[in-house]
Amino acid sequence: VVKQRMQLRDSTYRSVRECARQVYAKEGLGAFYISLPTTLAMSVPFQSIQFATYEFFRKYFNPTGEYDPKTHVIAGGLAGAIASSVTTPLDVAKTLLQTRGSSHDPRIRNATGFWDAMSIIKQRHGVRGFFRGYKPRVLTNIPSAAISWTVYEYFKWFLDTH
């Protein structure tokens, strides 16, 4: 919630502490947890898809299974791109919920949870609304997943050889 609020274009918060304090004072403790079910509903499929697609591409590009950083970078990047693509609608709903307290729109300010957020997005923006921020999300997940999987595979290899 704090990260999302501070990233808003018109954010006036100057520190994490100030943001957290103001959110708590204006909206209460529940504001920090309104998006938790949506976050979990997004994170579980994201990780599942990322893991499965990484394993698929790793085996496709490197059937022998030998340590190969290039394979891990490419497979990881593809896995991150696919997982973030599939779960973008959930991320849009999560972001709406996390930033609702900063909205001037009463309908958004009073959003009660996942299904309410999904309804607002559909009503306001149609199906395309579920893919707002798609490109930046995918473009940040590609290098993140590529680096993570490459480091993971390196340490697996390192521990196995030492």
UniProtKB/TrEMBL annotation:
GO terms for biological process: iron import into the mitochondrion. It is a multi-pass membrane protein. InterPro entries: MCP, MCP_dom_sf, MCP_transmembrane. The keyword rRNA-binding does not apply. Solcar repeats lie at residues 1-60, 67-158. GO terms for molecular function: ferrous iron transmembrane transporter activity. The keyword Repeat applies. One of its GO terms (cellular component) is mitochondrial membrane. Gene3D superfamilies: Mitochondrial carrier domain. It is found in: Mitochondrion membrane. Pfam families: Mito_carr (PF00153). Keywords: Membrane, Mitochondrion, Repeat, Transmembrane, Transmembrane helix, Transport. Belongs to the mitochondrial carrier (TC 2.A.29) family. This is Mitochondrial carrier protein. It comes from Phascolomyces articulosus.
